[in-house]
Amino acid sequence: MSPRKSIKTATEPLHGPLQMSDIARMAGVSESTVSRALANNPAVAARTRALVQKIAADAGYRINPAARSLRSKRTGIVSVAVPLAHQRAQHLYDPFMMTMLALLADELTSRGYSMLLSKVAKHQDGWIEDLLNGGQADGVILIGQSFEHEAINRAAQGGLAIVAWGEQLADQAYPSVGSDNQLGGLLATRHLLEHGRRRIAFLGDERLPEIAPRFAGYRRALAEQGLTPDRTLLVRTEFELDDAYRAVKAMLAKGARPDGIFAVSDVIAVGAIRALADAGLRVPQDVSVIGFDDIALAAYSHPSLTTIRQDLALGARLLVDKLIARCANLPVDTTVIAPQLIVRESA
Amino acid sequence: MSPRKSIKTATEPLHGPLQMSDIARMAGVSESTVSRALANNPAVAARTRALVQKIAADAGYRINPAARSLRSKRTGIVSVAVPLAHQRAQHLYDPFMMTMLALLADELTSRGYSMLLSKVAKHQDGWIEDLLNGGQADGVILIGQSFEHEAINRAAQGGLAIVAWGEQLADQAYPSVGSDNQLGGLLATRHLLEHGRRRIAFLGDERLPEIAPRFAGYRRALAEQGLTPDRTLLVRTEFELDDAYRAVKAMLAKGARPDGIFAVSDVIAVGAIRALADAGLRVPQDVSVIGFDDIALAAYSHPSLTTIRQDLALGARLLVDKLIARCANLPVDTTVIAPQLIVRESA
DNA sequence: TTGTACGCGTTATCAG
DNA sequence: CTGATAACGCGTACAA
After folding, report:
1. Which residues sit opposite A337 in a β-bridge?
2. Residues B77-178+312-335, CATH architecture
3. Of B216, B167, B147, B149, which is closest to residue B335 (Cα–Cα)?
4. Is strand D less than 7 A from the beta carbon of B45?
5. Which residues between 305 and 344 in chain B have a beta carbon less than 8 angstroms from any beta carbon of chain A?
6. Residues A262-282: pLDDT tens digits?
7. Does residue A130 reach within 7 angstroms of strand D, measured from its CB?
8. Which residues in chain A have Cβ-Cβ distances shorter than 8 Å to B112?
9. According to CATH, what is the number of the domain B20-72?
């Protein structure tokens, strides 16, 4: 290292990655000017700006983001996380999650942000702050609230830029984007009822923030017909094919005989249909099945799924909009998106 | 803000996030000692180390990663990217991709790394270097090589820590992990042949690095039976349900009548089965269909898919192992994983 | 419009 | 084993 130093000459760059001082020298201006020029600061003469930018580009120079964010307190990174408090296993590869992640990746990158992906299984103290990675991210997008509403609220009140996909909850200190889940549950159940179904099973965990209102919609639709939900037809299942499959098998084994099923996700619906098929029950002749989400698979499974569509593309766009606004300390409100009934073969 | 300042007292921390100097003061040691203690540097007395760590933890202190990486040149972030040169659309939510991403997220987080997710559609100069985000990431994991072998090689030779999931190619300057694709193609096609199928269609883009050897395996299996591939049964399709569905419909419309189909992914297989069903063809009675990957869906689609399983969990683990080794400038080799035939209903 | 000077919060070097 | 001190590479008041 010291021998290197002694050979050093004026023309020698010699440190691998170029830095601003190098560009400054090449352009014959000061570092500050380079900094401003690269930031497209109009305070720099247009000519100078263009010159510096060209030199930097030709030299393949890239700003050191660590140094930049150490100064500016901004990183250009958004942390996207999936809270899984209620999940046994990873379900990051749930098609719904994946679709949302892909859409978020699109939205974020198209606005110059990078996306840091985290899976949070253990929710120890400060897990949300951890997502910020101590400043390695400017803000946090949560996909689903799990049972962490309180923690999210606290983080938001602590000034953290955070936005969640999910249900609008009481006393929410953070903006959220989500479907009108009660309406979704209502539409789904009414559709089954309109097809003459009366013994309608509910598949999903009604304790979750997003699912509770779907369950409420389900009960309300039943009530409209003077029906009361049958406890044996309430089946708690995770958002996983295997789990739904087993749960429905178990329900049938206990002798329950639904003529309709409202599954709170398409994946659950597919698992249910498989279990029904194993039991020799035909869909929709013997049992009508309706899902939720309208993932890509829904149209291609057999039978194709009647489902409640969530507009995830819109959701992703809004989430990013709101997060960016929150990062800029602008006031941001919550949006509830109307879900839509999509009728296919299964119900 | 200024009114707050005026109330300032000696005990008041008042700069939001604590910093090392604060912990140093609380612990009655120097910043250097704090730094070392938090890094678990054994040069610090065990007692002191424990004390400092406890104080830091209790105070909720977290190291500023920007400052840390400005000094240490390490970020603890790995960039994971999906090159999509050959893709029209985003297919980040392809189940295969998603499974891989989820597994990588697990592997990385369990080793203390964060995962920066990028989708690369336009491969302009220096796109790989861009993934490093100018130092915001320590290394790059590529899922698939697309047509970018040369660019990847150049980046690797330039000293960038990079690892790819995919096929082992000639003159590879970077380590890769992937299935033995030719063997996979061979197993798949032989299975169809053993079931008496003779007019076997190939669904996929055989120009892609990972698909070419599957195609070679397909041809070899046919050759073993003295058969030559029928050009009308070679259907180029993207890794998307819709596209596969349309492509198979088009093939059938042209009058092609395969009795077997080797689809290079399960998603493609599902699309194909749908198109066959539309044409009144039964699977497997009229046409046997075999897929590739063994994604979660494979076991639950109807009919369930016979397929060639890729061990993605192992793959993800190896990718991360190798990347970490490369980051440490250790020599790293390429691994080829044996694929496995999984027999279900579709063939 | 441009340059000077300083500091962001850490880690590494070196001396004690 | 511990502490002082000097970078790391950039952004930004402030001065010119």
Report:
1. A179
2. 3-Layer(aba) Sandwich (3.40)
3. B167
4. yes
5. none
6. 999 999 999 999 999 999 999
7. no
8. none
9. 1.10.260.40
